[in-house]
Structures are given as structure tokens and as C-alpha cells.
Amino acid sequence: MLVILFFTLNKAVGQDSSFQRKITFLETAPSFNKKRFATVVGSTTATYAAALTGLNYLWYAGYPRTRFHWFNDFGEWNQMDKLGHCQTAYFESVFSYQLYKWSGAKVNKAAIGGAMTGLLLQSTIEVFDGFSEKWGASAGDLTFNTIGSVMFLWQELAWHEQRFQIKFSPHIESYKKGVLADRAKALYGSNFAQSFLKDYNAQTYWLSINPASFNKKQKHARWVNISLGYGAGNLYGGFSNTWQDDKGNVVDRSDLKRYRSFYLSLDCDFSKIQARSRTAKLFLGILNIFKLPAPALEVNTLGQVIFHPLYFLNWEVPLYLKK
Q1: Given this model, what pLDDT does residue 20 score?
Q2: Is the N end or the C end of the chain the one with fewer CB atoms within 10 Å?
Q3: Given this model, what pLDDT does residue 21 score?
Q4: Average pLDDT for residues 263-273, to the nearest whole number?
């Protein structure tokens, strides 16, 4: 795969970088630089290996291994896990693209290479799932990985900018002591790192749209985005709120209706904020993974309309509750 990327990004294998002036580390190379490309490949491989090791510890270590198998999980978790795959593949493609540009690859080739890398990095998780007795490789996950990477590539080739971004916002979900708290701990973990990755009740995914990108005459506040969000709640199992406790007793909490939430909010495209230093630009680009905390309007399938003065803090004002 890395050999394919090399030939994709480099117009001629024999081409090397010869700079007319010395450039700083964060500057983009003016032509393809083999040393920088090797650095990108090496650092990406090492970082991802470390990330997979951590993921194995946080997610898979407590479950037995088995033969590779497939599992249809599209109906699980109100599709929150699928959006997680989509968002992660999207930003892995974005950051891989930036790294390939830094190594001097041409824009379109860097975009293709970035999308290929994002899809590859995210899809290898299916290998872990496929060998885990608890899960299985998922065609749905692979589909949403592809959607995330293709969404990046389509925009970069069409506009050379990301007018639609997929973002993420976590919050701390509070579970009262008792059966539900024990179930949440078993499902989502007991620390913030595990909850950050696994707690679908405490995650929201956003399609963040930059209107100014469609209006080049707009001079001010080009960083303001409109954001459409999706979340879910009362998820105490993949398909239902019925499970077995440690003693083998069946716990039925189907009285807790699983629901979907839809949000409307404002956001910020941090990449459009003017920054003088390249370090600041890099930091702002990383911030684009997350949606800006802002007021939000929620409509959910429980029949509720809720105004959040500052979404993320669980601070809400019910506007209407359907009985």
C-alpha cells in the first residue's frame, strides 16, 4: 500500500527535492521530498501502531479472541457507531492530506493519497472486530469509513477546500447509582478515556457547513458555520435495553425509550481564522475535529424541544415536552 502511495504522490520516482532556499520545518516543500515522505510514512505508522495498542487495551482486551467472522451491526446503537467511523475516516483523510502536501506532493495527488490513507487506517479496525468474539467485522462500518474518506476527497478535488466538515462533540454523561450506573460502567468504562471512545449516550456528531465558502464576496466572519447535529440517548445495549447482569439475571429496562436527537447550532471553521504563525495554524486545524461549544436547539424522538444555552455542559431549557 505504501509503495502505491509513493508512486501516486511522486510524479517521477527519480525526482528529489532541491530547494533554492532553506525552508522551515512547518513550511510545505516546493517539490516532492523523499525524506519528508519517509518521515510521514514512518511517523504515521508508529503513531497508528501506538493508537491500535491503546485501543486494544481500552476496547478489546476484556473479550476472548475467535476466528475471523462478519457481523451485521447496522441496527446497533441507533447508528451512533457508524457516524463515529465516518467522522474518524474523514479527519484521518484530512490530516493525511496535509502531511502529504507538507512532503511536497501535488494537491490532487495529496488529496487522493490522503483519502486512501484515511480509509486504510480506519478500516484496519475491522480486523480487530473480526477476531473478537464480542463483535465481528462489519460491512456497515466499512461503508461509513468509505463515506468519510470520499466526502473529503470529493470536496478537495471539486473546491480545494472543505465546505462541509464532520465534527464531534463529547460530554460527560451522569449516571445515578444503581443498575443503570453499573450497566453504563460495564458498557462504556469507568474513566474518561474509555467514556470518550465508547459512551454513545455522551456523543454528538455534526455536519458543519461554511456558508461563506459559497459566497466569495463575503468579507467578514468567514469562519462562522451552521451545524446540524445527531445524537442518541437511553442506550444501554446495542439493540435493546435488556441484558444479563453478572449473576445471569435478566434485566429488562425497555421502559427507558431509546431515542434520537437532532440539533441546530452555530460553529466555527477554525481553519478560516487568520493566524500569523504556522504553529497556530496547525493548532487551529486540529481544533476542527471538535465542534465549538455554542447554543443549540434540540428536537428528539421523545417529543421534546430543548434549548441548550451552551451545548456540552448538559445545561438545558425545555421549551416543549409532549406527554
Answers
A1: 47
A2: C
A3: 58
A4: 95
| Cβ count near 69 (within 10 Å) | 13
Residues 66 and 135: their CA atoms lie apart, in Å, by 10
The rounded distance, in Å, linking the Cα atoms of 183 and 26 is: 46
Question: pLDDT over 90 for what percent of the chain?
Answer: 55
- 13: in domain: no
Contact 261, 232 (CB under 8 A): yes
- Domain boundary, last residue among 137, 160, 183: 160
Residues 6+ apart with CB under 8 A from 165: 90, 207, 208, 210, 225, 269, 288
pTM of the prediction?
Answer: 0.87
Are the beta carbons of 229 and 91 closer than 8 angstroms? no
For residue 215, report the phi and psi dihedrals to the nearest 5 degrees: -135, 90
Which distant-in-sequence residues (6+ apart) come within 8 Å of 195 by Cβ? 170, 172, 173, 188, 189, 202
